[in-house]
Write a structure and sequence with these properties.
There is one protein chain. By secondary structure, the protein is an all-alpha fold. The protein has one domain (3-102). It is 84% helix and 0% strand. The protein has helices at 3-7, 16-44, 50-102. The radius of gyration is 23 Å and the shape is rod-shaped.
């Protein structure tokens, strides 16, 4: 590794291919959260009783938390996908520039 490469080593630490796969995993997790939320709501939808009222209150709180988690997972996945797409050409340009500079 040249001195110039060492100066920019942190640029090459990112792995765009792996980031894309991890982002897809986060998106799948968000889908699972959304399905779990819908399943929970479906269990109590249209039911009437004191027990169901208590469960509904808990379910509403849980639904709110799950919805927030789903949004965070989707937002993180989108950010990682964007980063991965933009990182690959930046790395290629930097490698080429370093190669020319070292030559």
């Amino acid at each position: 590794m040249s001195l110039l490469e060492a100066d920019y080593a942190d640029l090459f630490d990112g792995r765009p291919d792996q980031l894309g796969a991890r982002a897809t995993d986060l998106d799948k997790a968000a889908d699972a959260i959304a399905r779990a939320t819908q399943a929970m709501v479906s269990l109590i939808d249209g039911q009437k009783s004191d027990a169901i009222d208590a469960i509904t209150t808990t379910a509403d709180t849980t639904r709110s938390s799950l919805s927030a988690a789903e949004k965070r997972y989707r937002g993180t996945a989108a950010a990682l996908q964007t980063f991965a797409v933009e990182l690959a050409p930046i790395q290629a340009t930097a490698r080429e520039a370093i190669s020319r500079a070292d030559f």
